[in-house]
Amino acid sequence: MEYSMNNASLIDLKNLTLEELTEFLAGMGKERFRARQIMRWMYGRLAQDFEAMSDLSKELRSQLSQRARISHLVPETVEESQDGTRKYLFRLEDGETVETVRIPMEDHRCTLCISTQVGCAMGCVFCHTGSFGLVRHLAPAEIVNQVCAAMAEAPVNNIVLMGMGEPLHNLDNVVKALQILYTPEGFDFSPRKVTLSTAGLVPEMLELGRRIRVNLAVSLNATTDEVRNRLMPINRRYPLAELMKACREYPLQPRQRITFEYILIRDTNDSEQDARRLVKLLHGIKAKVNLIPYNEHPASPFKAPAEESVSRFQGYLLDRGMVAVRRASKGQDIAAACGQLKGKLTAAQSRQSSVDSSSPEHSSKRGNR
Q1: Which CATH superfamily is domain 96-347 in?
Q2: In sequence order, what E strands does the chain have?
């Protein structure tokens, strides 16, 4: 995101919903329809400065440039998998980084996986992002700008808030970002095309359902409190019974289901007993189960499940009338799982720092301090 201290006092218009932008312009004595014009420029045409907005008067463009700015993100690193998955590392204005992944689907369509926080506070032991801890929340503009950057390359058909961070831990900014994404004068995304994934913050789940429409995905990953406590510390605060109650109360459209993400980990949660408990746990919930074989990485002791375990687990669910889909692994050759590209960059920087600190020049400077 290009930024200088001269811009620090300017209002980032991408942090504003249409209603807030209308109010901002009204304070400048401008007509309501100007807000819709500016939204179309920022999102429909991906304008990055006011001078590009040719249907605004020169006077208005000048006034805007004195009071506001339009932020944007440029990828610092892009990795592309053999299967077409593209992973972007974006550096934010304060120097922090977040990841976004473009996942190719059938018929030349794609899903964009976006981040909502720098790091994460949930501490799920199988998740690489959790090893960074929570640094800060992303602002609405930083969430939306991931979509803008991807749209600049090619259209995006679906959005999943499943990247770095726990979306419901950043609820206000996430809701505002969704409102911007849904705005007809913006990207005009349908709520049916957007999915939010949570580790299970129960009060925030219910508040989300009251405030805005979005597909809900729950990261479940275990069928007993004992195992889920170990894998996902949030379960100690909101155990399975409480989480399932909230899922039953979550407002759904007639044909909508809650997606339950279940990462299969060898000898941890991939047994037939787990499958049996999962069927019982989800009884009475309009559910779809995404089965995700664990994606191993060096920082974790967990292992991917055996192929026969995955097939047996899925078969048990299907035989009992459940919707159970095995999610295909994408981008394994580019470390496309959450936090892995950031982790690679951090490790490389650490190695470089170590090399620099051991160099004769650095040692000489250190000795002069």
Answers
A1: Aldolase class I (3.20.20.70)
A2: 11-12, 68-69, 75-80, 86-91, 97-104, 110-113, 117-119, 134-137, 158-161, 194-198, 215-219, 258-264, 287-293, 323-326
